[in-house]
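Hi V.,

You were right to ask for the full record rather than a summary. Here it is.
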Amino acid sequence: MKILIVSLLFIFTASLIKFTQISDSGYNRISTSENGLTNISESKEISSVTTTSQYFISAQLDSEKKKLNVQQKIVWHNKTGFSTKEFWLHLYPNAFKNNKTFFMEGKNLSEEEKSEIIIKSLKVNSSAATLKYQQPYYADNNDYDSTTGLIELEKIVKPGDSIYIEIEYELKIPRVISRSGYDGEGDFFFISQWFPKHGVFENGVWICNPFYPFTEFYSDFSFYSVNIEVPKEFSVGASGVNKNVEVINDQRKIYSFEQNGIHDFAFFASKNIVKHESIYTRADGSQVKINFFVNPKNLDMIERYQNAVIFSFDYFERNIGVYPYSTFTVVDVPFTASKVCGMEYPTLITICSNLFNSEASFSPEDIIVHEFAHQYFYGILANNEVYEAWLDEGFATYFTNKIIYEYYGKANSYFNLVNRIPIRGLQIYQIEGIPLIYTLRKISVPPFARELTNYYKQPEVGTIADSSFRNLNSFSYYILAYAKPSIMLQTLENNIGYGNMMKLIREYYNRNKFTHITANDFFDIVKEKYGNKYDWLIEEFYKESNLNDNMVFDLQQHGNKYEVTILSKNQNNEPLTLALYTDSDTLFQTIKMTEEIKRVIFVTNEKVLGAEIDPDRKNLFDLNFANNSKMIKGNYEGSISVSIRWFYWLQALLISLGGLS
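Predicted structure:
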């Protein structure tokens, strides 16, 4: 027990260490002044985005009863070449109606966490209509799940026709769960996936999947006009532009928001939050208004929040494309609502901070950067997240690593005390969130370290090409939607070069923005630019989950000839560089491991030191870089050093366990 107490005191003291702040207060494209706001504007393409529908929503928040009363109108236009006599709606809050829905099956759900859309009136073209709760034919069946519903129309909607849907309903707001709800005190409400949202009608079929665990959404680009009425003591922030705030009888306020060219809408209402405004100036001189709604306990974090947002704006504008909207909103959620932290919505993201925020760990900067990246990959390139979640999460993870490394450098490793307090160092062993064996040394973490570490744990859990909603659990979802796709993208970059990778993704973005995209839209551009050169990457690591381990098994000298024996766990057409190191030069050969064993001959009169396969570490899917090289003569100093360290930590572990017992 003495060891435990000493450990806790030491860790707590270490957590108070102040790290050097990373800031760029002189950044010349950011301003906190309200002057000159007349130049704030959306890019011209936003007003001309092809939209499928218009949403007109009026919502009244009852903060005491924890509910919304909503009047909603949808004007839907059939812009396809197919007719339909159906109209499908998503009703995502019904995922929390009981513990037998697809989302909640097998989980506990308290009464406070339950949510439901209670429809009071439904009309189609001014005539009463009925909503049938059911799943589409291509989805699994669940009689307890009402997250999708069908309206059977009286008349066929032909190509070019429109229909008008009116819905009045009450939404029961849950105590914060998953993406939505109120905090424990009822002082903060975050409302997302909250309104009946129509499915996507494409190729003569309505795509309207139930709300599955782990996976997210798929919607059409639309115009939104939303009025949100709240008690006067509440402040409101939301997707889109705040057009007006109207006070009613000195008791209530109505916030009015509008936005074209988005495919979702979220908002928050809070009694206790501080608004901070900044202006980002685009390269062409136009401006974007950035709204920071900050938890009063985190006011000292504003500069860090601001820097992370501005760095993200700058990176994407230089490399991929200009942020097209006129506003961007960051909501710093309170600790009591942490379940809605780290979420992305069009023109709005949620973030949060720990009790202590080590700036050397770049958290919450990494959250901000990741969610900003979703404005492009999810927001503007709108993939079906139910089937291909990697197209947004994988790209966002890839760019998070790029931006953090470019503007902040390598992060330092850290671990969390009782899951909340970040402490610089490396945790070796812990019990109940209490680190027992650790080092407080400064250890830098290279880009993609987290993704690689988790991929190595379960490299065969599935394929990136698998339908995302079929993933086994949240960890496999993380590997297949976040980790493995970002590793694939970095491996592609390692082969074609950073500049060419940015050109490739910029072409992918410009060609497909404000449309629904699939994996083929990206891979088609890869093949267009590079032919079949990278089919091995797509076939082996996207469509399949083959293990990859290229090993230098042996290095033998025969006079001036050196024979290098390579073993491969997975044979494909990947071109690999084999290096032979001499005391004065390095010789290279390009090989393909199309067989399990390959012997390569080098001829040199120089003294040979060793050989290495893939010396530049281009293929990040290699499961063991430690066996990529071999010396001509054995050198055991490294292994002896590792063994000594291992026995030290083993001894410390046994001492700690003995003390606990």
